[in-house]
């Protein structure tokens, strides 16, 4: 069993202003996405101003969509009883699936402004997303939240809020799968010319599969528990349409070969 590193969730305290690691990790994720987007801009013949506008819309979409998605999918009764919690981003509670919907809406707005097609934008954005997911999961780990199921593997940890039993550090599993590994796959895949929408389809397929696998090691959200068969979770349920959509998009993309 490994020792969970107790880390103060507040990274910087400036008088009454507290900068939390969770929020800081999202900031690092956005900076990483910005740097990668600037690097890709020349290959895709994008202007630097277009990159910055897209990331601005995307950041708003992630934050608003992620919080609203979390409220709708995982914490609706609490948010209804205490709406102010919707704005407490530093306490955790961001839904990837909600954030994805927010980004899709942001892509639609940016497409109307720039004259670019939806899939042209989404193919450009898709490889940038996993590093943001990586840093977000590291933020979950620092917060000591979203820990895994009880386990006796050598790297299991006792989390401060997870009781006395050692558990899978499932946040790190997700950081590696949905973050680092998915980034490597998408970056390699998009390095060569692919049919329009293929990169976006691979992102949906890859994330859906990796998240589905990671959910086997993660404790389900207590308000839902297991939905079926003592293992199927809300996170896995939300991944099913992503996997199906990703497969359909890749088949459609290679049939059209645009």
Question: How many E strands?
Answer: 2
Helix content: 55-70%
Dominant shape:
globular
Tell me the count of domains.
2
* Rg (C-alpha, Å): 19 Å
Task: Provide the structure class.
Answer: mainly alpha
Approximately what portion of the residues adopt beta-strand conformation?
under 5%
Low-confidence blocks of residues: none
- Total of helices: 9
Biggest beta-sheet profile? 2 strands, antiparallel
Termini separation comes to: 52 Å
Topology as H/E string?
A: EEHHHHHHHHH
The overall pLDDT, averaged over residues, is 85
Largest sheet: spatial strand order: 1-2
GO cellular component, one term: plasma membrane
EC number: 2.5.1.145
Membrane topology: Multi-pass membrane protein
Enzyme class: transferase
Short description:
The chain has 258 residues and is mainly alpha-helical.
How is this structure best described in words?
- Its EC number is 2.5.1.145.
- GO terms for molecular function: phosphatidylglycerol-prolipoprotein diacylglyceryl transferase activity.
- The protein is mainly alpha-helical and 258 residues long.
- It has helices at 21-41, 48-73, 76-81, 96-114, 118-125, 129-143, 170-189, 198-214, 234-256; strands at 10-14, 17-20.
- A two-stranded antiparallel ribbon has the order 1-2.
- The chain is globular and about 55 Å long.
- The termini are far apart.
